[in-house]
Automatic annotation (TrEMBL):
Main location: cytoplasm
Keyword Phosphoprotein attributed: no
Localization: Cytoplasm
Cytoplasm among keywords: yes
Protein name as annotated: Fas apoptotic inhibitory molecule 1
């Protein structure tokens, strides 16, 4: 395996199916461009005459669109920016924190990352979309599923405040799990 000598940028992108690592090699003398997603080569271009431009690829189970923009910033300096679904990584992550809830927990010595997509009520755990059963309860809804033999429930209740909207809480074995900040 050749050494990544032209590695110019590394990004971590949190999606529903997990946190993905994107690495970009840019050989400014050879014109080489290589994109790796989770250590796997996605794009390789040798001897590119144009040193600026963009590379587009997909990330994760849902094949989320990602684009690396390569811009010249003076002499022989370049700036690399990552866009996810057409938004800057920062904007995408800000928006994502509004549309998803994420919990990280440990059960029986194994780590789990549970993600709720609020718009679809889909639940993901360690990269797998979970089988869930939803039910209406007195104060809202409950979405039931199991992880590693443990019964889990995401409770959705109104905050009573319009600006806050609905509060989602993950309960595993009658224990409330604090939400993770990604």
């Amino acid at each position: 395996l050749e050494k990544m000598t032209d590695l110019v940028a590394v990004w971590e992108v949190a999606l529903s199916d997990g946190v993905h690592k994107i690495e970009f090699e840019h050989g400014t003398t050879s014109g080489k461009r290589v994109v790796y997603v989770d250590g796997k080569e996605e794009i390789r271009k040798e001897w590119m005459f144009k040193l600026v431009g963009k590379e587009t690829f997909t990330v994760g189970v849902a094949k989320t669109k990602a684009t690396i923009n390569i811009d010249a910033v003076g002499g022989f300096a370049y700036e690399y920016t990552l866009e996810i679904n057409g938004k800057s990584l920062k904007k995408y992550m800000e928006n994502r924190s509004k549309t998803t809830n994420t919990w990280v927990l440990s059960l029986g010595g194994k780590d789990y990352r549970v993600v709720l997509e609020k718009d679809t009520m889909d639940v993901w755990c360690n990269g797998q979309k979970m089988e869930t059963m939803g039910e209406f309860v007195e104060d809202g809804t409950e979405t039931h599923f199991s992880v590693g033999g443990h019964s889990c429930c995401i409770k959705a209740v109104s905050s009573g405040k319009r600006k806050e909207g609905i509060i989602h809480t993950l309960i595993v074995d009658d224990r409330e799990i604090p939400e993770a900040v990604e």
